[in-house]
Specification:
The protein is α/β, with parallel strands linked by helices and 165 residues long. The chain has one domain: Rossmann fold, CATH 3.40.50. Helices cover 36% and strands 13% of the residues. The protein has a four-stranded parallel beta sheet with strand order 2-1-3-4. It is globular.
Amino acid sequence: MSHPQSFDVLFLCTGNSARSILAEAILNHRGEGRFRAFSAGSHPKGQVNPFAIEILKNARLPTEGLRSKSWDEFAVPGAAPLDFVFTVCDDAAGEVCPVWPGQPLTAHWGMPDPAAVQGSDAAKAKAFRDTFVALERRILLFTSLPMASLDRLTLTRRVQDIGKS
């Protein structure tokens, strides 16, 4: 792990426009300086979904600096070591990931893609709200873990169990 008080966390999804962006924003806000969150995608869309920005603004979370980017940015030589890498979509979990610096703990926190919801704007907004609530619940469980007192194996199990909740 990088240093005792701060952990670097990468959230991965294929498009990096919705779920991983929401997770990045939630953890950066709720992590109270103990966590530094990032997000990326294997095939980034190149822009953040407008519904993701809207739900974050409605939750009064900062949106500046959020962008859809490739996971390659985090695997290049000299990239900052990561402590945790979480996949939030099933497609990204099934892909061959780059080798991450820092030998991070990994877990799959998959959930349905709100950006794939068809229909009215109200239906899409509801899907994003539901995703936000589920991610926030998992992130609050994650941030409440007693990191310093758990060995690597126990910590790995705990973060994997959060993804099943």
